[in-house]
Design brief:
Elements (H helix, E strand, L loop, with lengths): L9 H8 L3 H4 L3 E5 L4 E6 L13 H18 L5 E12 L8 E11 L3 E9 L5 E13 L4
Antiparallel strand pairs: 1-2, 2-4, 3-6, 4-5, 5-6
InterPro entries: HotDog_dom_sf, PAAI_dom, Thioestr_dom
Keywords: Hydrolase
Protein name: 1,4-dihydroxy-2-naphthoyl-CoA hydrolase
Length: about 140
């Protein structure tokens, strides 16, 4: 059975992100594979902390954005997912000027809750952050 129940494209998702948190931070979906959602985000004035490194909160926004989108994509029309818990472990700094890449995969896709893990990597491939998001499945339609 296929993971995705909605046939959204990366272009459609990116167009939806314009004008909201993900769009403001420059998050861009780069691929939708059989079992993952992938994205990139620049480390620039919008996403860096005062000392010139990627802000941990920006990493969490990236993770929650991907996990929520991925969770919704596994659900039939009439259901949505909302984040109910997120955590992040930061392993390596990422300096301004780089672009991080992220890959989000499911750990659990249940009827009431889902758990998604996102790995965020620096340009050299080193793991910068690993984050886990739990979503609740609720009734509703994506606007």
């Amino acid at each position: 059975m296929a993971l995705w129940k909605r046939d959204w494209t990366a272009e459609q998702i990116n167009a939806r992100m314009v004008g909201n948190m993900s769009g403001h931070l420059g998050i861009r979906i780069t691929a939708i594979t059989e079992d993952s959602l992938q994205a990139e985000m620049p480390v620039d004035d919008r996403t860096a902390q005062p000392f010139g490194l990627l802000h941990g909160g920006a990493s969490v926004v990236l993770s929650e954005s991907l996990g929520t989108l991925a969770s919704i994509m596994t659900l039939p029309e009439g259901q949505l997912a909302v984040g109910i818990e997120v955590n992040a472990n930061h392993m390596a700094g990422v300096p301004k000027g780089q672009t991080v890449t992220a890959i989000c995969r499911p750990l659990h896709t249940g009827r009431r809750t889902q758990v998604w893990q996102t790995e965020i990597r620096r340009a050299d491939g080193k793991l910068a952050c690993v984050s886990r998001l739990t979503t609740a499945v609720v009734e509703g339609n994506a606007a």
